[in-house]
Design a protein that fits this description.
The chain is an alpha/beta fold. Helices cover 30% and strands 20% of the residues. The strands form five sheets. The chain has a ten-stranded mixed beta sheet, with helices on both faces. Strand 18 and strand 19 form a beta hairpin.
Amino acid sequence: MRHPIVVGMQYGDEGKGKITDVLARQTEWVIRFNGGNNAGHTLWLNGKKLVTHSVPSGVRYSHAKNFIGAGCVIDPLALTKEIDELKGAGVSLTPENFKIDYRAHVTLPLHVALDAAREGGSHGLGTTKRGIGPTYSSKTDRIGIRVGDIVEGKAFDKVRFLCQNYNSYLKALGSQESSESQNLAAVESALETFRSFVSRDPHPFYEIAKKTKCVLEGAQGILLDIDHGSYPFVTSSSTLPAFAAVGAPFPLTGLGAVIGVCKAYVTRVGLGPFDTELKNDVGERIRKTGAEFGATTGRPRRIGWLNLDELRQAVKISDCTHLVLTKGDVLNGEKKLGLHMNGKLEMVDGWSECVEKQGSQNLSPAFDKYIQIIEKFIGIPVVAAGTGTDREDLVWRNFKAEQFWS
């Protein structure tokens, strides 16, 4: 059996959570393989908006099990808050339906302080200031703290060593040092959160992948990949679907269809190049209509026309096999739309409505024509299109979700 991987094809915020949510109906495992609580996946439950940051997007289903992989980083204080918020919405996480790989690294107040200090200087990158980059840095420095260290009571000396190493750097940046007691308290608090959920299996999906449907969920987007994105304005982990084999970990031969998710336009949060950015009334109108404000930070997202040159590059780097185009409804009423192709911007016809009539499973001819232009340029099929905010507002084009496991 081969299992699909859901990844973003732009700069994050593409609507991956909605697609994972649809696939989670048919799976037993939803596996997050990269990133931390700097990402926000938006879900809807009983008409209520839920935003998960670290917890995978399968939490809506009682039959689904959720796994945070070894390639992720976890802020225990933020995770505890997220678990409580989900519980308040009627979602209960138990040791049976939620597990955390013991090798995932832990974000402490020290890491958050480092992130904020760096962003406050002249070389800021526009991060979420959630401490993600410094956590990955301490991981590669080989002085990081893993979930297993906390559960096994091995973290306290490591915390002291981290403070000794990084507080001098904070001081050099002109920032207040992060107190050792504050970080130790965070570890003690994390113990209660992690203890019941930790998985110590070094190869948790080796057998499961042979007989049980799984879906692997990536955070951020391909154009933010640490190696292949618009460096240095990138995230701190690999966002490529190939990393699922490492970050879960998941058997390489069990990886299947790569489902790339992108918006009908482009958004970006933070700094970095943006060739098609709209700094005008059109961009502001799209931002308001699409509620384009960060799910994690609330920051207004930068808006631009769809860049097919970038999208084709992302398809090739990720070996994407199927594309899902989201938020077609946000562009309803725009008479002309920009598409960046072969180094230049071309204007094409827009549409009044993206579906033939409200609630219809038929795309309007004008929207479908826009999709056909995309397919022809990037060379892979657009198998589904998002036509509204509700989880049912997804039109499949000559394809069914269950085919991803066939």
